[in-house]
Design a protein that fits this description.
globular, 5-stranded antiparallel β-sheet, about 35% strand
Length: about 150
Amino acid sequence: MSTDRPGPEPRAAFARFIPVPTRWMDNDAYGHLNNVVYYSLFDTAVNRHLIEQGALDLERGEVIGLVVETHCNFFSSLAFPQAVEAGLRVASRGRSSVRYEIGLFAEGEPLCAARGHFVHVYVDRQTRRPVAALPASHLKALAALEMP
């Protein structure tokens, strides 16, 4: 087992930032965001980007993304009522899958408090089988998250 633990990354490592609000209920008994909240913030940021870019239609879209893998490393605590910004980037994409990487930053902080990823496999809404290729609307939305 590797002992190399990833460290926090700077804002410059991400292509786009989306504000993700914290809520009173997000804090746990230890006074910071519960670990499960970080995954919710990841999901919220990515899907908000896709909706804003016209790639995700929650009610009628023929293609939907299913999360098949998640991961998170924690570096420092976040807590309600902090303002949090999610940095987004696309790390890789295949025929029907995308690995999104997300950094959660306390407002104004130069390094992320947590960094993680999740993988979407894009499937046909009806059959739940992977699509043959990502639709043009998704490719456009993903291009905005690719690092130069």
